[in-house]
Each structure stands twice: as C-alpha cells, then as structure tokens.
Design brief:
Low-confidence stretches: 1-52
Structural class: mainly alpha
Mean pLDDT: 89
Number of helices: 26
Strand content: 5-15%
Largest sheet: 3 strands, antiparallel
Helix content: 25-40%
Length: about 625
C-alpha cells in the first residue's frame, strides 16, 4: 500500500539482498532484468521475454538457479516504507489523511489501477522461471532442483496471497500463457477457494523441499524451509479466520462454497509446530536488557545478525553500500506524515504485574500521561515516546511532539538513536525484519484458541515468553477482559482469543499486519472509530510531558499564541477542528475533518474498470 522510497539505490540494494561476494552472480543481474521483460503489448502473459542469452545456455548450473531466484527479491519483498507504515490506516493509528477507500466517493473501480501489466509481471517472471529452470536438471542434483522449485513456488504463493487479500477472487495462472491462448487470457476470475487451495499447494511444496541448510539461513533475505513455513502459517491463519468470521465470501456476497475454516487453522498449527519443534529459532530474552531488547530488533543496523535466532526473514540495509531508507524522517518530519497512536490501543498495554491498565484505573481515559506510562509493559516505552525517552546516547531528552502526533502518542519503534539521520534524506540503515519467530508463536496461539484448543501448556510456549521478555508477569486468563471484549465490539467472549489479539497488537504493531488482522476478524468498523488522545488537565497551561522539569507543549485555542513550546491548536467553534473532550480540558480529540466511513463491501477492493473493459469476462466484487 505504501510506495517504495524513491531515494533507494536499487543496484546496491540488490547487492545487499544477496549478501554474496561472488561477482559472477552480481554480473548476471543484468541478464535477470532482460529475462523478465515482456515483449508483447497484447498481454502480460504472452510470448517469451526478450533476453541477451537463451534458456538453453542460462539454466545450466546451481549458480544460474540462484541468480534468477535472487532476482525475485526486488519484485516481491516489501520495502521499509511498506512494512513500517502499513498499519497507519488501521484502527490503532491517527493520520492527517485517509486512504481513498474510506472516503465517500474516494475510491472506485473507475479510479483503481492495480490490475495493470506491471501488477502481474512478477507472476509472469515466476512462471517463466518454473518452466525453464527444469533445463538445469542435467547439471544439478535432485535435492537442489527441488529446493529452487520450492523457492519459485514460494514467490508465486506470496504473489497470490497479496492478490487474494486485495481482490478475493482472481484468475489463477501457473504457466506462461501463449498469445494465442485466448481462453486463458480472457477467462473470468477463479473462485477464492480454488485459488487459496493452489496457494496452499505451492506453500506445502516449498515447506517440504526448500532447504534448511545454514548456508541459506545465514543470508537474511534468502528463502529456506522456515521462511516458507512462516508464510504458510500467516496465510493459513488469515484464511482460516477469514472463513470463520465472514459468513459470506466478500468476492461474491454469497456463502462460501465449503467450510474450510478448520482445515486452514489446522494447517497453520502444523506449520508453526514444525518451526517450534526444530528449535532453530527462539525469543531473545536477556532479563538485564528487557527495557531495550524489543526495540533493538528494529533500530540496529546489524539486527539480522544480532537477532538471527528470532528474525526468520529480513531486508538488509547498509550505509557503507549506500543502501538506506528514511524512516527517521517519517517519524520526525511533518512533511512525511503525522503518525500517532490512539488511546484506545494504548489502553491495551498491560501493567507489569500482568493486570489490565483499564482494571487498575476505572477512569482509564482520564489518567494523565505520566501516570499512564508508569509500570506498564516495557514495550510501551519502546514503541512510543514516554517520560525519560532519550536519544544520541542518552544526551538528549525527547518529549512527545503534539504538532506531529496529534494524540500525543508518538512512535519510536523504528526511530534510530542517532538524530543526525532525522533530516530530509535517506540515511537510516537499520535492518527491517519481515518475519519473526514472535509472529510464529502468536499465529500458533491464535489458531489454537480459535480451534478451542488453548491450554496452559500452549500459553506457556507462546504468550508467556513474549510477556516475560517485556517485563510483564504472565497470567493464564480465567475470564475475558471487559475492555478487550468491548474493543472488538463484543464479537467474542473467549478470554484466550482476546488475550492473543491483545498480544498480537502490542508485539507486531507497525509491522504491516494490523490492517489484515482487522479485515480477517471482520472488524472493519474499527477503521472509522473516533480517535482519542492523551488527557490534558487544562488548556492554555504549559505542560511537561516527559517529566524532566521543563515544559514541552501547550494546548491553546488562541491562534495568536506565539509560545516557544510545541503548540496544539484546538478550535471549539469548528466541527472539524482539534478539540478537548471537556472543552478546556480532557482527552485530545483529533480533527474530524478526515472522513472515514466503513461498509462491508470494502473488505475487498474493486477490479478496475479498465481491466474489465479489456476483458469483459472479468466479474466484479459486490457493490463496487
């Protein structure tokens, strides 16, 4: 959903993704680019691509297979921007603009443009590879051939998983389509059940045959069996809960063709158990570092090495190779956005004794900022600016900036310690985890809870280590937390499901999973829920938010206020302006000028009108 950083150096980033010093491989990247070009304008599936060598001469070694497979990384791996900013239009965040699909008339089939040749080219490249890689069979042993076929099928599954999340039903293609094959080129979409079964077939193959060798695992971006298992777990949990909580297929508006929810949840369990059983990965937990070790995974430039026991798949960045991103700028400078969390979400962080914050303070929305940050899950102070937050080796105190984060809850999860990287340039080189062992544990716990099979043993293997790493006492729940039940609109009362959802939100925030979670749980109304921020005791009064004895900000309704402090202007006269819930005091209520409306047909996006004009056989999603 978020465009790549245009400042990125793609050539050097590709070098970095390979982490391979062999010049022959890097020299063949130009061949990959040629191999992936499409010759015909008639269709993105027709004819062989133009290239500078032939398949007979290219696919003749393991190195050739590796070279082509490396080429998939650029086209399929999400960028730092996509991963770290993907949650910004979900229920947990406040922004100054809204995605078009949440606005009345802001998005339609006529406006959609996500079915063009470029959107499907990655699939063509994968199918081309899967067809021609077999030419290497005389030169490569059987196990290696199966590994690289598994890599190709992994990327095809990854491609279609994204398409299913976007459109629901899509046409399934597992071969390069000839220009003369009009039946395939102009067919309708295959139903979602069929496509998802094919995705599962591809993932099962990859999980069976992709290698577990350390030589693949030490390359953070390479595909191996555990990456495939982690994707299978993510996909199967998504599809299993989608079928459970959506009685109708969003692609058709009709009941599902068959009840496959339990099947997908059990496949999720199977994939997670395979990763857990092998013992290759674990949760990083040094009790002496519990106040810092969570965030360190997201701000260190060598995180994929330092946390190799937890990070399963990642995107590497390195300033020495000029392969960088600009996340500091995005979390500091208003020109990139105004990322802020909602109080409703912040309320879900537990106290360190394992009890709910909302239980300790019955008037939980009226608790002042310093008090609400005290004795909380250590991940809170590693996710937002709280009293005591410092940067530059502890030399500078950084209070929440209410001119940037309108609720007062300003994120720091991906913000590096070095403030010299905050300027409007791409300087950050912290690695970006794409799949972590923590998610595997959460997927396992959720699937078990949804199947009605949560036990204290499962809890102790999954939720307990995540909470203990964060300084939170693990309490096996005996009953549902009323706040969590109400948060999810009293959809479920199972305490285990609710606690897993709490833990998932806290642990995986800002990792591009929350939007999909809300969709699969059938909680779309949360996208349009009113926003609430921190408690302000009195307007027109300087406030010390970070507790260092120096005032940081002021909330005022006086447009002429020239205070040197950070200023949040409120406007009681305007319906759309920022407000305080009790007029001159209360919770910050960010502007309502940003329209957000939800309808259930928005669980999938429309097939673009241009695509349906070119192929009249394509069906449309209901109400689009």
């Amino acid at each position: 959903r978020i465009p790549d950083d245009p400042k990125r150096n793609h050539r050097t980033e590709h070098q970095l993704l390979t982490r391979n010093p062999m010049k022959p491989i890097l020299n063949k990247i130009a061949i990959i680019a040629g191999l992936s070009l499409l010759a015909s304008c008639q269709s993105f599936f027709d004819e062989d691509p133009v290239y500078s060598t032939t398949t007979d001469t290219f696919f003749n070694s393991e190195t050739a297979l590796e070279t082509y497979a490396i080429g998939f990384l650029e086209g399929h791996m999400p960028s730092a921007a996509t991963l770290t900013r993907g949650d910004q239009y979900s229920d947990i965040c406040v922004t100054t603009q809204t995605e078009g699909f949440l606005k009345t008339g802001g998005y339609s089939a006529q406006q959609a443009n996500n079915w063009a040749r470029g959107n499907w080219r990655p699939l063509y490249n994968v199918n081309y590879y899967l067809k021609h890689m077999k030419d290497a069979a005389p030169y490569v042993d059987d196990a290696t051939m199966k590994h690289y076929e598994g890599v190709g099928r992994f990327f095809r599954a990854l491609f279609y998983y994204a398409k299913v999340r976007t459109f629901g039903a899509v046409p399934w293609y597992e071969k390069s389509i000839e220009a003369t094959d009009r039946e395939e080129l102009y067919k309708d979409r295959d139903n979602r059940e069929y496509v998802c079964r094919k995705i599962l077939d591809d993932l099962n193959y990859a999980c069976t045959y992709c290698s577990t060798a350390a030589s693949y695992r030490v390359q953070a971006s390479y595909i191996h069996r555990y990456v495939a298992l982690a994707l299978k777990a993510r996909f199967c949990l998504y599809e299993g809960t989608m079928r459970k909580y959506h009685t109708l297929d969003p692609s058709t508006g009709k009941p599902w063709l068959s009840d496959e929810s339990e099947m997908y949840l059990r496949e999720c369990v199977s994939a997670c158990e395979a990763i857990i059983r092998d013992g290759v990965y674990s949760i990083t937990d040094n009790p002496a570092n519990r106040k810092t070790q969570y965030r360190a995974m997201f701000v260190e430039s060598n995180a994929t090495t330092a946390y190799a026991n937890e990070i399963i798949w990642a995107r590497n960045y390195d300033s020495d190779l000029n392969v960088t991103h600009y996340m500091n700028s995005y979390l500091i400078n208003q020109q990139y956005g105004n990322y802020a969390f909602t109080r409703q979400f912040i309320n879900t962080y537990l106290m360190t004794d394992g009890t709910p914050f909302t239980e300790k303070y019955p008037d939980y929305n009226g608790v002042d900022f310093a008090t609400e940050c005290a004795d909380r899950d250590y991940r809170l102070a590693q996710t937002i600016r709280t009293p005591g937050f410092t940067r530059d080796g502890g030399k500078t105190q950084w209070a929440p900036d209410v001119t940037f984060s309108k609720t007062g809850y300003q994120p720091i999860k991906w913000l590096t310690d070095d403030s010299s990287k905050d300027t409007n340039t791409s300087k950050c080189d912290n690695d970006v985890p794409l799949m972590r062992y923590a998610e595997v544990l959460l997927n396992y716990a959720e699937a078990k809870a949804e199947l009605g099979e949560m036990s204290e043993e499962i809890w102790n293997k999954t939720i307990k280590p995540l909470r203990e790493r964060s300084g939170v006492a693990s309490i096996y729940p005996a009953e549902a937390d009323p706040y969590m039940a109400a948060y999810f609109q009293n959809q479920v009362s199972d305490p285990y499901i609710l606690e897993v959802r709490r833990e998932r939100g806290v642990e995986l925030t800002m990792e591009n999973v929350r939007y999909d979670d809300i969709v699969r749980w059938h909680q779309g109304e949360l996208f349009a829920r009113p926003w609430i921020g921190i408690w302000i005791a009195a307007a027109e009064t300087p406030i010390d938010l970070n507790g260092d004895g120096v005032n940081d900000c002021i909330v005022t309704s006086d447009p002429g206020n020239k205070s040197p402090l950070k200023i949040l202007f409120i406007d009681g006269a305007s319906e759309a302006g920022h407000k305080l819930s009790q007029g001159t005091s209360g919770n910050i209520l960010p502007s309502t000028a940003i329209e957000r409306k939800w309808h259930d047909y928005k669980y999938v996006k429309p097939v673009p009108t241009t695509a349906r004009q070119e192929n009249p056989n394509l069906s449309q999603n209901p109400e689009w």
